[in-house]
Amino acid sequence: MNRRHFIAVIGGAAVMGRLPARAQHNERARRVGVLMNLTANDPEANARSTAFINGLQELGWSAGGNLHLDYRWGAGDPEQFRKYAAELVALAPDAILATGTPVVEALRGVTRTVPIVFVTVIDPVGAGFVESLARPGGNSTGFTLFEYGMSGKWVEFLKQIAPSVRRAAVLRDSAIGSGTGQLAAIQAVAPSFGLELIPVGVQDVGEIERSIAAFARQPNGSLIVTASTLALVHREPIIALAAKHMLPAIYGDRTFITIGGLLSYGPNRVDPYRRAAAYIDRILKGEKPADLPIQAPTKYELVINLKTAKTLGIAVSPTLLARADEIVE
């Protein structure tokens, strides 16, 4: 998708030109809202939106023809999530695509009837979005980001790439329940790796800067950045702070590594958007979210940035390099 076309999408108008118009003049165009947790000019947002639109195209949906897309961008701001949730629901869409737990919470605050397909939600049952993974019930279904237990792998890989670290600040969004769940999984395995954990709850970039600077005053430190919208939106300052204080850091999203982070382990974040298009398609054709089971990631990826490792004075072992799915040089 070229940038001019993408800007047309994010403006909230129908996507024109790229998708074939197959609707007959007498068909009613269906309406789908999209509430994203990033900013409209974020390259990662572009990739995710493109995957969703391409998925719809493959299923015969033509924005500007038989489909109208309304985009809103929350930029990690809970107030914006609530504002745009109300705006989208007021448009009476046939379905809404929602990114992340805070976005789904905002939408559920204004509707329990409009079908919601979510992506990158860690614990939809614990958050109260669905009754069970197999039979969601209600008006929401979608795709989980990962199970909490996977968070323990961050400790394992961090110690493999930086065996000398003895302390780790666990950066988490203190406003979301999934931050607590991820921390618990990390705490369960840390003692077996001889790693002392310092939980750091933050809610804005200022707290992130102060907390990392304070933690870095003591030696042998490292950083574990748990998955959250907050971390993703502020990924550039987090990576800059890790570099400034020479902290080996692991993340749950390869997006951090492509812009200078050390290593990440987690699911592909773009693929669920393509898969979500299939659920939107099924809902538009008459199926109910209550009957569509929650789907989990199909693959987890280990990504290592060798340039960052060299800057930190880390020699990555051949064993770890062999396990990597992708190496950034």
Walk me through this protein's architecture.
The chain has 329 residues and is an alpha/beta fold. The protein has 2 domains: 3-145 and 269-291, Rossmann fold (3-Layer(aba) Sandwich); 148-267 and 300-328, Response regulator (Rossmann fold), CATH 3.40.50.2300. It is 36% helix and 19% strand. It is built from 12 helices and 12 strands. The protein has helices at residues 3-10, 43-58, 78-90, 101-108, 152-161, 177-189, 205-215, 229-233, 235-244, 271-284, 306-311, 318-323, and strands at 30-36, 67-73, 95-99, 116-121, 140-144, 167-173, 196-202, 223-225, 249-251, 263-267, 300-305, 326-328. The chain has a 7-stranded mixed beta sheet with strand order 7-6-8-9-10-11-12, sandwiched between helices. The protein has a 5-stranded parallel beta sheet with strand order 2-1-3-4-5, with helices on both faces. β1, α2 and β2 form a beta-alpha-beta unit. α2 crosses α10, α3 packs across α4 and α7 (205-215) runs parallel beside α9. The relative contact order is 0.13. Mean pLDDT is 91; it is low at 1-26.
